[in-house]
Design goal:
about 210 residues; 6-stranded mixed β-sheet; alpha/beta; DUF4417
Length: about 210
């Protein structure tokens, strides 16, 4: 187990009836779990698709392995906001199909909601339950103004349409999202990204 690469949660806002038992204590990337499994963490797929076996090989060969963990987020295939609408829909279908696979195999899961720009809204929020515990991934979306704008708009649309009871975020959190969650009494929980944790480890100096 390599816990320094398993993100612990940070509660940014505790809404009404928030129950910490409903959320993962830690999350770990699927690829990292193959080398350093943390069997107390939930698996996530916020990583480069071309390097992740869950994408290159498909999920089916790994379902038995995934069952060793407390649960899994659904897939995070990119819905690129510059992509053609058919490409966006194919990615969305793959992400949603992962939930069907997990449920058919008795694997606890949390829906990871992935969206692009406005043209993805009619289908990317389909079959996402209301008033639920939902995950989004912000890693890599906050560095550039156009990406940040698309991610912010999609997150606001998710909040408006699905009214999640608990919103879990992998990576940094825009203060405007925190303010919106407070206004709507939505619990907001953040998980530091693997990159953040690795950077923190690099500059950590133990006391002597």
């Amino acid at each position: 187990m390599n816990e320094q690469y398993s993100s612990p949660y940070e509660i940014l806002y505790r809404g009404k009836d928030f129950d910490e038992k409903e959320i993962p204590k830690r999350v770990q990337s699927f690829s990292m779990s193959l080398a350093y499994p943390d069997y107390g963490a939930w698996l996530h797929y916020y990583e480069k698709e071309k390097l992740c076996k869950a994408y290159t090989d498909g999920l089916s060969p790994y379902l038995g392995y995934i069952k060793k963990f407390p649960g899994s987020l659904t897939l995070d295939r990119s819905i690129g906001w510059c992509d053609h609408i058919d490409v966006q829909k194919d990615s969305d279908n793959l992400n949603k199909h992962s939930r069907e696979l997990f449920e058919a195999n008795g694997i606890p899961n949390i829906i990871n909601v992935r969206f692009g720009d406005k043209k993805s809204y009619p289908f990317c929020f389909r079959n996402v339950p209301q008033n639920a515990v939902l995950f989004i991934g912000n890693q890599g979306t906050q560095r550039y103004a156009d990406c940040k704008m698309v991610q912010f708009a999609g997150t606001m649309e998710l909040i408006k349409r699905q009214n999640p009871r608990v919103l879990l975020v992998y990576g940094s959190v825009d203060k405007r999202i925190l303010d919106e969650c407070k206004k709507r009494d939505i619990s907001l929980v953040r998980y530091p990204s693997q990159c953040e944790l690795a950077h923190a480890k690099k500059f950590f100096t133990p006391e002597t």
